[in-house]
Amino acid sequence: MAIQSVKIYNFKSIKKSDEIKLQALNILIGPNGAGKSNFISFFKFLNKLFEQQLQLYISQNGRADNFLYFGRKTSEMLFGQITFDTEYNNRYGFKLVPDQAGNLIFAEEWSSIFSGFTNFWDNKKINNPGAIESVLPNSDGFRDKYLKDSFSSMKIYHFHDTGFNSKIKQPCTTNDYSRLYEDGRNLAAFLYKLQKAHPLHFNLIEKIIRSIAPFFNKFHLEPDEIDASQIYLRWFEKGSDQVFNAHNFSDGTLRMICLTTLMMQPELPKTIIIDEPELGLHPVAIEKLASMIKTASTKSQIIVSTQSVTLLNHFNPEDVLVVERENNQTVIKRLSSENLQNWLSEYTLGELWNKNVFGGRP
Predict the structure, then answer these.
(1) Residue 206 CB coordination number (10 Å)
(2) pLDDT of residue 18
(3) H or E element that contains 259
(4) More exposed terminus of the chain, fewer Cβ within 10 Å: N or C?
(5) Do β-strands 104-115 and 90-98 pair in parallel, antiparallel, or remain unpaired?
(6) What pLDDT does 116 receive?
(7) Which residues have CB under 8 Å from 4's CB, separation 6+?
(8) pLDDT above 90 (res 243)
(9) CA-CA distances (angstroms) from residue 77 to 26, 57, 128, 322?
């Protein structure tokens, strides 16, 4: 498992969280506006921080007031701490403060390693007050190696954009296949690699797509006949030899192809984070998605937010984090089978959610 826990102060609707413990499988549910997307976006914030694109990200998304809990007038600083369950149990933390221009700059940045001999966390400051970007990616320290590996394999995926000009529908570079990008823009190249190097995984992906899109026969993935440096997401329909492209897929089918490729690839990222992956999917496809999420969680840590009762029905209470707004702030709590024992003998988890037995409803 990659992430052991997170602690967040003054990030968007999250005023002051307890230590939120994460496990291999984490399904977030809750009403609109409760803070599910804000919790997911905290990890995107961490990604940008680690990629040393923090100031650009803040400038493009409303500056400090859009990230601090009720803005600079209410919150003086933004605190984050993430603990990774690595060989040595590593922890990374930061404290950011707003400057007069509305940027967020470092007041503190540290890395920690848990000492089994003394049973405490050994903190080490790695940045100077006033710095505008993280220094973690540039650190050569032994303890930071594990942090950098964990950050590099913590990915937030978003396949919602399937419009006419979507990057998923455009051609991509044939050899751009080292990993599936978070927005799916190199889907064709990545599938091409799987077809050539991992045919068993590729054939399984095709089989799953056929099970939710009966018209689909197989992919046609080859470098473009005119420009071999480019490849398109092309495919055959059953009973036809005409080649179709990505624009001929429905939005739901295209998203399902992205999700299936992500979950069924041979080497998964350590942590996969997705916000509402069920968007536009048929109930049958959602059932397939649930199965893939559970399978992927045996090899990777999965964090998913959802509004789907159908998806929720496939998981256990211990997999579920309920997100609610209490006293004008986001509160996150994990469910327990023991507390729901009497209910679960007669109702599914989704039915209990609809009945507002454990919260997470408007």
Answers:
(1) 19
(2) 86
(3) helix 251-264
(4) C
(5) antiparallel
(6) 63
(7) 21, 22, 83, 84, 85, 89
(8) yes
(9) 28, 17, 16, 26
H/E segment holding residue 14: strand 14-16
Q: What count of Cα atoms within 13 Å lies in the side-chain half-sphere of residue 247? A: 4
Separation between Cα atoms, residue 14 and residue 8, nearest integer Å: 7
Tell me whether strands 301-305 and 25-29 are parallel, antiparallel or unpaired: parallel
Structure tokens at 133: 């970007």
Q: What is the pLDDT of residue 87?
A: 65
Instruction: Report the phi/psi class of residue 329: left, alpha or beta, with left for phi > 0 and alpha for psi in -120 to 50.
Output: beta
Encoded amino acid at 96, one letter: L
Give the closest residue to 169 by CA, choosing from 265, 255, 281.
255
Q: What is the DSSP string of 267-327?
A: S--SEEEEE-TTTT--HHHHHHHHHHHHHHTTTSEEEEE---HHHHTTS-GGGEEEEEEET
Give the sign of the dihedral formed by CA 96, CA 151, CA 167, CA 248: negative
Structure token digits, residue 341: 């024992």
Q: What is the pLDDT of residues 176-200, one digit of tens each?
A: 999 999 999 999 999 999 999 999 9
CA–CA distance, 34 with 175 (Å, rounded to integer)? 41
What is the distance between the terminal CA atoms of the chain, rounded to a whole angstrom?
A: 32
Number of residues in the chain: 362
| Residues in CB range of 281: below 8 A, 6 or more apart | 252, 255, 256, 289
pTM, two decimal places = 0.94
For 243, residues 6+ apart whose C-beta sits below 8 A from its C-beta are 220, 234, 235, 236
**Residue 167 pLDDT > 70:** yes
Query: pLDDT, tens digit, for every residue of 7-51?
Result: 999 999 999 998 999 999 999 999 999 999 999 999 999 999 999
